Amino acid sequence: MAQYNNLLLENKEGILFITINRPSKMNALNIETVKEINAAMQDVYDDTDVRGIILTGSGEKAFVAGADIAEIAELNEVNGRRFSERGQEVFAMIEECPKPVIAAVNGFALGGGCELSMACHIRVASENARFGQPEVNLGLVPGYGGTQRLTQLVGKGKAMELMMTGDLISAAEAKEIGLVNHVTSAEDLMPKCLEIMRKIVAKAPIAVGMIVDCVNAWYDKEEHGYQTEANSFSRCCGSEDFKEGTSAFLEKRKPEFKGE
Questions:
Q1: Distance (Å, rounded) from C-alpha 248 to C-alpha 243?
Q2: 229 vs 157, more confident
Q3: Which residue in the list 95, 96, 135, 187 is annotated as catalytic?
Q4: Known catalytic membership, residue 260
Q5: What torsion do the CA atoms of 157, 167, 108, 175 make, to the nearest 10 degrees?
Q6: What is the mean pLDDT of the chain?
Q7: Contact call for residues 212 and 96 (beta carbons, < 8 A)
Q8: Could you give the CA distance from residue 235 to residue 238 in angstroms, rounded to a whole number?
Q9: CA–CA dist 228, 218 (Å, integer)
Q10: Residue 135 appears among annotated catalytic residues
């Protein structure tokens, strides 16, 4: 497994833990860290030993407290576009990953950190987590997909309010508006993520990946969600996992999926 300056990676029984590790900067996303996330996700796509990913931040204060403001301050209209597009590309790799990705949000998830969590398929937050898109305070808009994903998750009106005011919200409010799936104590955060992940990785990998495709197609203006669903259903029907799943059900036994 590759070595990184700002990420810690550990594979435990097929579940890859990716930890953003810049505690002195509250795990803020600088350009190097975004590049490392990109490289790690590329490996995830190809590594058959990885069945699912849990993404978190080091320490108890922050998941990711935002982007590196020192780097952002140097942007102009020309390189600002590429900065945004590059982040969007990397976060899309997470959103489109055929393997389940769960964000374990411990502490602050602000700006790029909130955007990173929203790119994951499922979000679990500790009680002390705080979410927000405060870019407006810098004279900016979210640039790593936040304007789109926040609207998808919480609705137009609430997304407008959060981005226009730059307000931060608690984990409890984030769950209330649909931004996170579950809220736990700090001690129970990782066990809850593992509980969900173990349920998912026990299912048919091909079907799990196609669920990601189908759900994402609903939001893609160039895709037809129902057609993507029908195509995915058809492909599942041709898989060995489908034969195993149906046979196991009829034979009243637990299926043994192989991702084939």
A1: 8
A2: 157
A3: 135
A4: no
A5: -40
A6: 91
A7: yes
A8: 5
A9: 9
A10: yes
